[in-house]
């Protein structure tokens, strides 16, 4: 009886170790990233000298309206805050079309594309691309809307 109850306790102790280890690894990853500095870039790669109008915001900051000439960019940096999930979004416009989308959020697949530092959004004639920095190509992400 005592033998079986101690076996049960040992098994439970082992299980709880197995179940809690990933969460401490996750916490460690989060504290590594907590004071991590990120850059977001909005690049105008439109043809024919078209101006790109960008209006980007977070919950706390309105970065204002920027007119970005071809070949130029708007960029800003910030430190990620894991206690209030950091999120930026933009409204981009050219001619009579626009695209509204998130430009920074908390997601490993997204952070990977930024090489954990530079999230580069490129406006082209056919839509908005996100640079996949580690793999070296531009991924089509959003179309222009009327
Ligand atoms: C940020 O944008 C400016 C143009 O507004 C550019 O001159 C500068 O090189 C950019 N910085 C980075 C780190 O890309
Ligand atoms: C940042 C970026 O993607 N720049 C490209 C803009 O388009 C020209 C060709 O039209 C490319 O050479 C640049 O690399």
From TrEMBL:
Keywords: Secreted, Self-incompatibility, Signal. Residues 1-20 form the signal peptide. Transmembrane segments: none annotated. One of its GO terms (biological process) is rejection of self pollen. It is found in: Secreted. Its main location: secreted. GO terms for cellular component: extracellular region. PANTHER family: PLANT SELF-INCOMPATIBILITY PROTEIN S1 FAMILY-RELATED, PTHR31232. Belongs to the plant self-incompatibility (S1) protein family. This is S-protein homolog. It comes from Theobroma cacao.
């Amino acid at each position: 009886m005592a033998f079986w109850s101690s076996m049960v306790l040992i098994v439970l102790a082992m299980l709880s170790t197995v179940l809690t280890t990933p969460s401490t690894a996750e916490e460690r990853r989060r504290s590594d990233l907590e004071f991590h500095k990120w850059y977001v870039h909005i690049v105008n790669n439109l043809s024919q000298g078209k101006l790109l109008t960008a209006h980007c915001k977070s919950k706390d900051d309105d970065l204002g309206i920027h007119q970005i000439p071809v070949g130029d960019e708007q960029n800003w940096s910030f430190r990620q805050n894991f206690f209030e999930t950091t999120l930026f979004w933009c409204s981009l416009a050219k001619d009579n079309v626009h695209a509204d989308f998130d430009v920074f959020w908390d997601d490993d697949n997204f952070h990977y594309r930024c090489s954990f530092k530079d999230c580069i959004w490129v406006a082209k004639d056919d839509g908005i691309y996100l640079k996949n920095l580690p793999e070296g190509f531009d991924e089509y992400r959003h179309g222009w809307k009327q």
